[in-house]
Design a protein that fits this description.
Helix 1 links the parallel strand 1 and strand 2. The protein has 171 residues and is an alpha/beta fold. It has a single domain, classed as 3-Layer(aba) Sandwich (Alpha/beta knot). 31% of the residues lie in helices and 14% in strands. The chain contains 5 helices and 6 strands. The chain is globular, with a radius of gyration of 16 Å. The chain starts with a strand and ends in a 20-residue tail after the last helix.
Length: 171
């Protein structure tokens, strides 16, 4: 069982790489909805994305969708939460469930308003000052994903540090 992190039309390769690293850290699946704002066949883009994700790419299950409609069709009936600055509910007011889908929009424009309105009861935001439009996408994903994991009691994440022995001494 795992959370599902969904990036709808991500625009910045380094953000996607950082998010993949977060997914590896918590065991979440990464769902990526096309079109991307970067060329995944471009060697420079691949280099930056890979560098951001470090050597954790083999520890992330990545699922791709051709577009938002494809994603909606393939996830019908699943528990989906949208994260958007256009919501009134705070992300900490949601009771997350194992295998929930946490959906984030493109960096520059967020999720489409009709998608938010269709799922308004399951839409939430991260509180911030009104002089700030939004947080960095990879930071937003980390904030919400770790709140969901906290609510799920960090299932399978505690007691797994390879850096400490049973007496909490650094190896």
């Amino acid at each position: 069982m795992a959370l599902n992190i969904v990036l709808v039309e991500p625009e910045i390769a380094v953000n996607a790489g950082n998010i993949a690293r977060t997914c590896a850290a918590i065991g979440a699946k990464l769902h990526m909805v096309k079109p991307y704002g970067f060329d995944t066949s471009d060697a420079a883009v691949k280099k930056h994305m890979k560098r951001a994700g470090l050597d954790y790419w083999d520890k992330v299950d990545i699922i791709e969708y051709e577009n938002l409609e494809d994603f909606k069709e393939k996830t019908k009936g699943k528990k989906i939460y949208l994260l958007s600055t256009k919501s009134k509910k705070c992300y900490t007011d949601i009771e997350y469930e194992d295998e929930a889908y946490l959906v984030f929009g493109p960096e520059t424009r967020g999720l489409p308003e009709d998608f938010i309105l269709d799922n308004f009861d399951n839409a939430a935001r991260i509180p911030m000052r009104d002089i700030i439009r939004s947080l960095n996408l990879s930071n937003a994903v980390a904030i919400v994903a770790y709140e969901a994991e906290r609510q799920l009691n960090y299932k399978n994440l505690l007691d797994v540090s390879p850096y400490f022995d049973e007496k909490l001494k650094i190896k």
